[in-house]
Design goal:
382 residues; twelve-stranded antiparallel beta sheet; globular
């Protein structure tokens, strides 16, 4: 089955053990148009919560602070994180104590702190960091700049990973990192103002994406690829009812690390092609490789089931990407080269398979643009 919406998976998950050692975030990424020139620019907005049971009157930011770790302190805050990609790129962070945050934890969720708010259907807010503040507060891990946004959200096509994020698996915290993309194809309407420049979000051109992750720690390697800005290379036509989404790395189940695995789905013009290792009866298999050159990050993902195959090859220029910054709920920042972009390009070759893969027929070869993309493995700071 395809396009299964389930907003209960978008609820706030930091209860039980995850209240003291857990993170939960809601992510939205998009392409907006310069209000004067029409030039396109890629953005993201994220609401990241961490360790609510440890909340203090001020945000607790650790970021590999050895003294704080020695004292047993762990982070606790809401981090509102907004960023932008391209040759001009950056990430801006604003922190709140979770004592000052209003959260409607059950579905449909909502979260609000000062003028920053987010829900299933709307988000707005602002971040301003001066050069002096950025220099004086390296623990903020923020660039300098100013951004504000206000837009409505319509989540059109969902990626439902199945029982791996089911209620029972969530209750026992079976996985170290969970994922749900309620709006892997989302339509946004509104505006973003970056350093005084206004950008417009239109449903038909925004290439919108909405998901969430939660758990007790991150994965390494960390892989994510998604876009709904797709064109058939066979017909030359825009695919208006299509989106692909691939993510994962090396999942841990009860602290036991599985082999490198990815989840993926290509919703192609109303028909679903899912590649999900947890659905063993589909004989889903995935091979992937990610690598750096001097100028680019590359991804090659080959996914198969009994009935279909998807060969995905993506690249993104480093000059357009961020090394996005996250602090694990333990207080350690082990992802120090987590490449994150919104301007990737590449091709997807979709095949129909029969006779257990002995026969393959090309359904379409698709060119993808504006790809949200991520790759990183744990490493020491440079």
């Amino acid at each position: 089955m395809a396009n299964i919406h389930d907003i209960t998976r978008d609820r706030w998950m930091l209860y039980g053990p995850l209240a003291r050692k857990g993170y939960d975030w809601w992510w939205h990424s998009m392409t907006a148009e310069n209000a004067e020139t029409g030039e396109q620019k890629a953005f993201y907005v994220e609401f990241f919560t961490c360790n609510p049971a440890l909340a203090e009157d001020e945000p607790v930011i650790v970021w590999n602070d050895p003294e704080a770790q020695k004292a047993g302190r762990r982070p606790s805050y809401l981090m509102v994180n907004a960023g932008f990609w391209g040759e001009e790129h950056g990430q801006l962070h604003r922190f709140f104590s979770l004592k000052d945050v209003q959260i409607h934890a059950t579905a449909p969720y909502s979260i609000q702190a000062a003028d920053c708010r987010c829900s299933e259907v709307h988000t707005e807010g602002s971040i301003r960091v001066t050069p002096e503040e950025a220099a004086a507060h390296p623990e903020w891990m923020s660039d300098a700049g100013e951004i504000r946004w206000k837009f409505d959200i319509r989540k059109e096509i969902a990626f439902h990973v199945g029982y791996g994020a089911s209620k029972i698996f969530r209750a026992i915290n079976a996985f170290e990192m969970f994922w749900h993309a309620e709006g892997m194809k989302s339509a946004f309407t509104g505006e973003i103002v970056l350093n005084g420049v206004r950008y417009i979000l239109r449903p038909e051109t925004c290439n919108g994406y909405s998901d969430k992750n939660w758990g007790g720690d991150f994965t390494s390697p960390w892989v994510w690829l998604s876009s709904n800005n797709l064109t058939s290379m066979i017909t030359g036509k825009k695919l208006e009812n299509s989106v692909f989404n691939i993510g994962g790395g090396r999942p841990k189940v009860f602290f036991w690390a599985l082999n490198r695995k990815l989840l993926g789905e290509f919703y192609y013009e109303g028909k679903d092609y899912e590649f999900n290792f947890s659905k063993f009866w589909t004989l889903s298999r995935t091979k992937f490789d990610c690598w750096e050159t001097d100028d680019e990050i590359h991804w090659h993902v080959l996914q198969t089931t009994r009935n279909s195959k998807l060969d995905t090859q993506i690249r993104c220029f480093k000059k357009d990407m961020l090394n996005i910054k996250y602090e694990a709920p333990t207080g350690y920042k082990k992802h120090n080269r987590l490449w994150n972009g919104g301007t990737g390009t590449g091709t997807l070759k979709l095949y129909k398979r029969s006779l257990f893969g002995r026969k393959e027929k090309l359904i379409d070869e698709v060119y993808a643009e504006g790809i949200g993309c991520e790759y990183g493995e744990y490493c020491d700071p440079e």
